[in-house]
TrEMBL record:
SUPFAM superfamilies documented for this protein: P-loop containing nucleoside triphosphate hydrolases (SSF52540)
Family (UniProt): Belongs to the SIMIBI class G3E GTPase family. HypB/HupM subfamily.
Domain of life: Archaea
Protein name as annotated: [NiFe] hydrogenase nickel incorporation-associated protein HypB
GO molecular function ontology, one term from the record: GTPase activity
UniProt domain CobW/HypB/UreG nucleotide-binding: residue ranges: 48-205
InterPro entries: CobW/HypB/UreG_nucleotide-bd (IPR003495), Hyd_mat_HypB (IPR004392), P-loop_NTPase (IPR027417)
Length: 225
């Protein structure tokens, strides 16, 4: 299996959320340009956000397995330093690109553009993006994706969604993962579903277990795939 391509961000390449409003605006303009590029190329793009350990990579691996007969899939995985995620995904036989953001804790539209263009040249028609593990600033940096999904796991505790409501407002789909752990953890999944809907009444909520595969078909449907 060939090693996945790794793109490392230059120090000034990934925009910082503390920087001026202008940078947020510049990112939004680039995201809009990305969207036009994706639409012109006939590529559907989904951005998965969520904490480290919520199961973003496992969810993407499951989706790749269930959809790779239907779409030509490419994956872009964001992480500060490692290529673990792209490595895992590439084992499923789809092109995957790792972006290392260095000090920055989110992906942004310019660096995603660079990776997406490579995948488009390889002929993909579905790109799944794994954002850097973090439930705060990815919300402020749209990438030009058609849909944003936020992944939380029941192991993150019962207040996770209430505390990070903003990111749920920025997403169209909420994935409540590790359902198989809800019994052992004593977590009420129904209450988490309600919290997600309280944060964003329009969000589609899907309960999954990436470990068993439960809910993955429902998730594909919620993503319109
Ligand atoms: Mg991951
Ligand atoms: Zn950040």
């Amino acid at each position: 299996m060939p090693k996945p391509l790794v793109i490392k961000a230059d120090d000034d390449e990934v925009l910082d959320v503390e920087l001026e409003e202008d940078f947020i605006k510049a990112n939004e303009r680039m995201a809009a340009l990305n969207r036009r590029t994706f639409d012109r190329a006939g590529v559907r793009v989904v951005d998965f956000m969520g904490s480290i350990g919520s199961g973003k990579t496992s969810i993407i691996e499951r989706l790749v397995e269930s959809l790779k007969g239907k779409y030509r899939i490419g994956v872009i995985a964001g992480d500060t330093a490692t290529d673990i995620d792209a490595e895992r995904v590439s084992r499923h036989g789809v092109p995957s690109i790792q972006i290392n953001t260095g000090r920055e804790c989110h992906l942004d539209a310019p660096i995603v553009r660079k990776a997406a263009k490579k995948l488009i040249r390889e002929g993909v028609n579905l790109i799944l993006i794994e954002n850097v593990g973090n439930l705060i600033c990815p919300a402020e940096f749209p990438l030009g994706s058609h849909l944003r999904a936020v992944v939380v796991s029941v192991t993150e505790g019962e207040y996770m969604i209430k505390k990070k409501a903003d990111i749920f407002r920025s997403a169209e789909v909420a994935v409540i993962n590790k359902k198989d752990m809800s019994g052992p953890m004593g977590i009420d999944v129904g209450a988490l579903v309600k919290d997600a809907l309280d944060a964003n009444p329009k969000i589609r909520v899907v309960v999954t277990s990436a470990r068993t595969g439960e809910g993955i078909d429902d998730l594909a449907q919620a993503l319109g795939l």
